[in-house]
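Give me the fold.
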Amino acid sequence: MAMARQVLPYERGTIVQLGPGTGAITAALLDLGISRDRLYLVEPSADFASVLRLCFPGVRVVEGNALDLREYAERDGIDDIGVIVSGLALSALDWERRAAILGRSFSAMGHAGAFIQFACSHRPPVPPALLADLGLEARTLGFVWLKLPPASVWEFRRATSAKAGVAGGTRPSPRVLGDGAGAGRPRSPFGSGQRGA
């Protein structure tokens, strides 16, 4: 739910999920009232893709690689991607693969698009030097402290100035993210059903 809430400001356009796994974030997006026809899921596992189609009728599911998002979108007539929500374990990938996924994702999005990603750490899942190479900036949207180790949620955007990297001081202090259940006791959104955690 902590990840899903980040798409609420994007009231228009297609919401892409990369690596949705068994659909934990997909379910949270639907619980928040996101229309099924706005979702476009790209899942590399044939088994998980079958589960997603079964559990979420009416949601578009593509069995394929995140690196080919632009080709899938063009094939399916999607030209309005506003935000990408990633369940991929970016931190575990090498520099070149992270660069390729982010670069191709942003080439498929509108200029104002954002890439939402979690990390099982307080550090960004993409090094500042790589962000600078890609002309992107990152900002943390908050932490899920009850996850061990604590998880963080990050937003990547095209840099608004020549100086790209990890933003500081442009947002309020990171807050605790949770699903809103209980009085001040947020739960981790990264359950056992989510891949890449």
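The mean pLDDT is 82.
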